[in-house]
Amino acid sequence: MEKIREFLKRKDIQISLRRYGIDALGAMAQGLFCSLLIGTIINTIGTQFHIPFLTVPVATVAGVEYTVGGIASAMSGPAMAVAIGYALKCPPLVLFSMISVGFASNALGGTGGPLAVLVVAIVAAECGKAISKETPVDILVTPLVTIGVGICLSWLIAPALGRAATRVGDLIKWATELQPFLMGILVSVLVGMALTLPISSAAICAALGLTGLAGGAAVAGCCAQMVGFAAISFRENRWGGLLSQGIGTSMLQMGNIVRNPRIWIAPALTSAITGPIATCLFRLRMNGAPVSSGMGTCGLVGQIGVYTGWINDVASGAKSAITAMDWIGLVMISFVLPAVLSLAIHAVVRRMGWVKDGDLKLN
Hints:
Layout: H1 2-10, H2 17-48, H3 52-55, E1 59-61, E2 64-66, H4 68-74, H5 76-87, H6 92-109, H7 113-131, H8 138-178, H9 180-196, H10 201-208, H11 212-232, H12 234-246, H13 254-259, H14 265-281, H15 301-316, H16 324-351
Antiparallel strand pairs: 1-2
Helix pairs in contact: 2-4, 2-5, 2-10, 2-15, 5-6, 5-7, 6-7, 6-8, 7-8, 7-10, 8-9, 8-11, 9-10, 9-11, 9-14, 11-12, 11-14, 11-16, 14-16
């Protein structure tokens, strides 16, 4: 047993929730952002501003035509797997082999591909790390083991993982349509808190394919956390803090939350209020890329995702036009209500003596 521990330590293989549930999951979201999400944004820009280079096919592969954005989106599987490999500190031969692993697991995982990529890529990466530089012919053995394990696992479990993720996501979406008030609260609070915690709300939404009303509730929760923390901490952090949290990440407050969890009351309660407002009053839907549901105001990705969904719905005939009420709902849920409600609730929390000056100060 001691030899096994020494071997794992030498290979930097850490079987832990932090390594897989935080580092790998967070990296997967970045891979999705740099492929599927960027591709979607490029396609939207090309369509809305009538830019020929971004709307005409630039490549044809196996009879399928791809635009610039389409090529970026098609690379989501390899991008996620390589990002996971990077987070797991894979040596070069293992890291480069993850491209094939990501393509196979994402393709075989179907609509639940991101979850399949996460599981398969972690196993393949750790197996590759274990064999790396253990033989005189490392340049052959390491890629063979990494790709072999990854593709075999993809064939064996990726379809089942994809279906499981899709069914869970469908269940959440169905429940939100059936009970928009209660599920609006639940989804908004949980996804919003996941965004602030050192895990990836974006990856969770992508893995579950969280769109529709449930996606709108997720956007509301994330915005409540980001804009909420930016607003209530303005007196301590000024404009730098407003921007870094408001369009960056509320995760910056995690250290302060550990020291005084009560600073989380205002953003959490705000998300519980804006979630059902989004689902019941404004009927805010995220019909863009699911990963956008868990991004909130980070780079305005959540808002761009909602807008992209509107464009897609209009193009398909599911929506007649983008209305003024659509824009009012998006602005209110994304910016106005999170700021106003968080400040009001935080004022009460401060008056009760639960939060004092300096508790929200960023280093």
